[in-house]
Design goal:
Layout lengths: L4 E5 L6 H14 L7 E5 L5 H8 L4 E5 L16 H7 L3 E4 L2 H6 L4 H13 L3 E6 L3 H5 L3 H13 L4 H6 L1 E4 L13 H19 L1 H6 L1 E5 L7 H5 L6 E4 L6 H8 L2
Parallel strand pairs: 1-2, 1-8, 2-3, 3-4, 4-5, 5-6, 6-7, 7-8
Helix pairs in contact: 1-2, 1-12, 5-7, 7-9
The chain binds 1,3-dihydroxyacetonephosphate (13P).
The site of 1,3-dihydroxyacetonephosphate (13P) has 14 residues, from strand 8.
């Protein structure tokens, strides 16, 4: 049985104070919800406050991006060692918004995934096709290429312990979701790719989330699918009540 993992990606929202208030309120209301991993990914400037507010609760704090080097002349970047030092446990890597707007490539995603693991940070690795690729029937090819590239050079044990997120780009922030069946089909395919490259055991253990316009009203349909182990949620993770509903699906 894979443990469900519900993660909120706050993107460029919330000040440090707002993050702290949110996490304190979430922690107070989470008591008794122990069947799922709960992760919140605030902006860099809120990470320290978020880690403090989450102390003593089951909430884990993720960054939304990181550099692959631990230090150096990289103005404006944040290293895995810096995140680890703050108490950050997870990091979203290869989100489509970073691929689209900030020139993230399969190659840099792979470097970041390796660096995260070297620093004991669990990567949440995002893959997913754009609308044009879906319409051309290229979804499986795109997802296969991204998954293989992201995981290149990892051991089977490392792959089993990370988190993948399938986020079809056309479903992000648009209110359009993939049907639960379509998401299941792609995620099953991702598991097959992992089974081929890293063995059945890793493929059976690795947790794969769906992301893209997940809401309290539709999360159950995704979570009922046998290969979908969680959700990576943007908009609907920004209000405590809505995020709690997602966790309590
Ligand atoms: P939305 O839930 O706002 O569609 O965002 C999804 C996402 O990009 C999570 O990483």
């Amino acid at each position: 049985m894979r443990r469900p993992v519900i993660a909120g990606n706050w993107k460029m929202h919330k000040t440090s104070h707002e993050a702290q208030e949110f996490i304190e309120k979430l922690a107070a209301n989470l008591k008794g919800v122990e069947e799922a991993d709960v992760i919140v990914a605030p902006a860099f400037t809120s990470l320290e406050a978020a880690v403090k507010a989450a102390q003593g609760s089951q909430i884990k704090i993720a960054a939304q991006n990181m550099h692959w080097e631990n230090k150096g002349a990289y103005t404006g970047e944040i290293s895995p060692a810096m995140l680890r030092d703050l108490g950050v446990t997870h990091c979203i890597i290869g989100h489509s918004e970073r691929r689209q707007y900030f020139a993230e490539t399969d190659h840099t995603v792979n470097k970041k995934v390796r660096a995260a693991l070297d620093n004991e940070i669990i990567p949440i690795v995002c893959v997913g096709e754009i609308l044009e690729e879906r319409e051309k029937g290229d979804t499986f090819n795109v997802v296969e290429k991204q998954t293989k590239a992201a995981l290149e050079g990892l051991t089977s044990t490392q792959v089993a312990e990370l988190i993948l997120a399938y986020e079809p780009v056309w479903a992000i922030g648009t209110g359009k979701t993939s049907s639960a069946d379509d998401a299941q089909e792609v995620i099953t395919k991702i598991r097959e790719i992992i089974a081929n490259d890293f063995g059945r055991e890793s493929a059976g253990r690795v947790r794969i989330q769906y992301g893209g316009s997940v809401k309290p009203e539709n999360i159950k349909g995704f979570m009922e699918q046998s290969d979908i182990d969680g959700a990576l949620v943007g908009g609907a993770s920004l209000e405590v009540d809505s995020f709690l509903k997602l966790i309590n699906y």
